[in-house]
Amino acid sequence: MPKVKKKAKRKTPALARAAAVFENYTIAGVAGAAVILSLILVVLWAGGYFGMIARAADRAVGGATASAGLEVRRVLLRGAHQTAHEEILAALGPIIGAPMVQVSLKDARASVEALGWVRAAAVTRLMPDTIVVSIREREPAAVWQIDGDLHLIDASGAIISAIGANGYSNLPLIVGSGAADASAPLLSALRRHEELTKRTYALVRVGDRRWNLRLRNNMEIKLPETGFEKAVDDIALMHAAHATLDQPLEYIDLRDPERTVMRRRGETGDENAPSLRVSESGAG
Known about the structure:
The protein contains eight helices and 13 strands.
């Protein structure tokens, strides 16, 4: 017997209109709820309630960790030779007794790296109760004299600390306004020549544009504004070949790249008077 197909029931016009109205109201209700929720969030943000909630949660977490014994009881310092433990504690602030999770490692590192001797630092947590501070210290390269005060600086010109008149007398003295900031390239050039570095007493900034080297035997070496690195190399080569720095010279003038001018001690006349002149090709 053949199957009889049932006809699908058609919605009456009234039911279709009711369904459409219900669907439109549903969509409108969802959109309205989203708008209202957005307004509530804006009000909460503008009133600072989110920050209050976050701070309350942070206090709750800190209290819970402190109750569990997870609070800072000691600070371990690694890599320090010139930096005292007390300086590190002072830089970190009131950290002993603080909840471990509330210690900002980023802020702690920035505070430690602000200390003069510290070139770089790393701060980590060692559970359950220790903050570990690892540092790399600056290496003294020279003493900067400005307005009668003496400051120890590293090879980059960064100030390490103030020092007394008799401190670090083995290091070259840098003299002049702005000399510390400009000294890094010259200090780097000198480090290539140990003997010349040992003989150098002072690096004198002239007119904030070039350098003179004052040696410990009172000889002066006048360097050019540009290319002074090569001039330093030339002086080192001249001394290695001819013991030039042991000669009784008042100065060696390298400001003109085409010639080297040397004046012996005791010679009279102005600076432009004839002196011992060596061509650039014969300087070595």
